[in-house]
Amino acid sequence: MTTLYVIGNGFDLHHGMKTRYADFGAFLKSDHCELYRLLEDYFPMDDADDFWGHFEERLADFDADTLVDNSEHLIVPYGADDWSDAYHHDYAFELDQVVEALSVQLLKAFAEWIRRIGIPVPSALTVPPARIDQSARFINFNYTATLQRLYGVPESHVWHIHGAAERPTDPLVLGHGWRPAPKERRADRLDPEREDTRVLEGAAILDRYFDKTFKPTEQIIADNAARFAALADVDDIRVLGHSLSGVDLPYLKQVAAHVRPGAAWRISSRGDPSWLQEQFSLFAAPAVATYWPLPEV
What pLDDT, on a 0 to 100 scale, did the predictor assign at position 179? Predict the structure, then answer.
């Protein structure tokens, strides 16, 4: 039997690691308070638990309209008595500063945070270890080296599908799964013959936010076609601590499409089993999964 493990954040949480997105939020509030303030200004954070519980998906909820409202006073009429050439760029500069912070700087802060998280040594565990087959293969959606450090899994067996924190030059992938259609893009909804060029430039900057924070799942799948094809002999899939969230379903569909027909799936997660079965049916129907609590899988 050839076994493949699919590892999600619940696996690290099981080992007492503070890897929730809510922990990232606390880090931002403490170490990057200005960035946190921008999140409060431009994302729906009335329900903080919901926002951080679905952080990647919520990145698609950027309130560009509020940013425009807060910045349009910088579009000074061309006939103003105190006109300055600097007014050509003030509006775009303001939008660009916010977009850069909420995309590039946010990802840098995320990388800084995840690389600070410590991995417990085996003697310090307060929970039973999971039953891990070191000879199996692993698709790790986490950025941490918990498998290698705690369980002695060879690095060559672990595919960090979104990057590895222990490799300083590894780009870490984080983002939402929504990409606006051409007609939904702000710049494409404007008439270039009628609009102020500053408004047009600002619209393009706002559209770039969604491009910069989009998780390029299709490209990652295409770039790793050989890795997915190599799963053809897998007949035992064990999902440990993965929420089966929508943003990652395309990867799981690829796994289901490439493993042996009739392969057995066993899912261990803190989620509700009935909801997990519903999610599972979205990418592996008509296959059936069984559910086990950690560390029994």
Answer: 79
